[in-house]
Design brief:
Residues 102-182 form the SPOR domain. The chain has 185 residues and is an alpha+beta fold. Helix content is 51%, strand content 21%. It has a five-stranded antiparallel beta sheet with strand order 1-5-2-4-3. Strand 3 and strand 4 form a beta hairpin.
Length: 185
Amino acid sequence: VSATFTLAVGLVVGWGGTIMYNGMKSGDPDGMGAGLKQLFTDSQESEVANVLSKRATSTDPVRASFEFYTVLPDVERVVSIEETTPQTQPSQETVKQSVKNQDSNGYYMLQVGSYSKQSMAEKMKANLAITGFEPAIQRVSIQGQGQLFRVQVGPFATMGQLGKANRKLEQMGFKTLWLKVSKRP
């Protein structure tokens, strides 16, 4: 194929395309390319109609936007380290009262990790089990993030037990999140 022939074909195709494009944009119903405009408009409108009809006839049940009350069996709150260090020495009566009420107040947990893949959570659980802890995996559904798998150690009845376990985990290189889980009234 010669260069002259290729150039001639390119010019003819370019000239024809220009005429079709100008006819399509002109708005003249008898102009060359007017049929293309109608073809493109019809196909776009039918595509939009198909998408809208699929959305309208969807049989998926409507999910509740809040799952907080059904997901968490108890109420959790993050405990900061500052809250755990007593400012003064508690009296003997205070200690007896706290021991008496520890079951009614709830318990403490250490969260070692939170993963989007269950396999990663299982690996962390196995690593912790080897070191002597009894970890558990809690599956939580969080809106916008999907399923998360929390690896937690505990429960601990007192802050002292929690602190001791936390120090051991820190020595092994784990960073934890302290949680206080309160039983519902």
